[in-house]
Specification:
Structural class: mainly beta
Shape: globular
Radius of gyration: 13 Å
Mean pLDDT: 94
Low-confidence stretches: none
Helix content: under 10%
Number of strands: 11
Length: 127
């Protein structure tokens, strides 16, 4: 069982930055692919970014490309999402998710592929 805890959300102005963290309760280095998703009120959960278990491969949703960066520190069992140039439309609850995988370079972009989810952290961007 893996427990995930997100942190780093908050209120920021248009154009600002935030770094979200996803801390795992157990060793995830080398074994778990991780993804970030977000959900705004009245909308479906949206893929933001994903990273393979070895950190070598990443993938971003269209809204995140060029502005967000996903990374991981396996020694700290933590995955990060650096968000720059934030816009009001980025306002949502952000969730991290993890999935055990035997494939070094695989990542997942669909929420149904993940087994473990955090409780989410609120990101609000004011105009």
């Amino acid at each position: 069982q893996v427990q995930l805890v997100e942190s780093g959300g908050g209120l920021v102005q248009d154009g600002g930055s935030l770094r979200l963290s996803c801390a795992a309760s157990r060793q995830i280095s080398g074994n778990y692919a991780v993804g970030w998703f977000r959900q705004a009120p009245g909308k479906e959960r949206e893929f933001v970014a994903a990273i393979s278990r070895n950190g070598a491969n990443t993938n971003y949703g269209e809204s995140a490309k060029g502005r967000f960066t996903i990374s991981r520190d396996n020694a700290k069992n933590t995955v990060y999402l650096q968000m720059n140039s934030l816009k009001p439309e980025d306002t949502a609850v952000y969730y991290c998710a993890a999935r055990f995988t035997s494939m070094d370079n695989l990542y997942y972009t669909l929420p149904g592929r993940y087994n473990y989810w955090g409780q989410g952290t609120q990101v609000s961007v004011s105009s």
